[in-house]
Design brief:
This protein is α/β, with parallel strands linked by helices. It is built from five helices and five strands; from the N terminus they run βαβαβαβαβα.
């Protein structure tokens, strides 16, 4: 049975790349795509994904704000932050401090992605 994943990224190219990597891994199904944190919150409530892959830098509501909101709605939410920009180290650290399960960088390495995803589903 595949795990339901919500992809949150304002870049359609990055979202497609994430969807492809998840498809290549085989155990994951993308159930929705949000282009910003505000959309992510709405889709999280309606789709109940088991995992959220969320870009840190986005318009309207960034990944950090969205992470805070999602964890208020569901303290057990599994969120992995996706970083594409060099120098977001402090934001990545803040995301982990707030409760993100991990931070992964673009471009995506299939084996690294597999390890990060499996770790996200281990008991915390």
């Amino acid at each position: 049975m595949s795990r339901k994943v919500l992809v949150v990224d304002d870049s359609l190219a990055s979202a497609r790349q994430l969807t492809k990597v998840l498809g290549d891994l085989g155990d994951y199904q993308v159930v929705g795509h949000a282009r910003n944190g505000a959309e992510a919150v709405k889709l999280y409530k309606s789709l109940s994904p088991e995992l959220v892959l969320m870009d840190i830098i986005m318009p309207m509501m960034d990944g950090i704000q969205s992470l805070r909101t999602l964890l208020k709605i569901d303290p057990a939410a599994r969120v992995i932050m996706v970083s594409s920009v060099g120098g977001v180290g402090s934001q990545a650290e803040e995301a982990l401090r707030l409760g993100a399960r991990n931070v992964i960088s673009k471009p995506f390495d299939l084996e690294r992605m597999r390890q990060v995803l499996e770790k996200a589903f281990e008991a915390k």
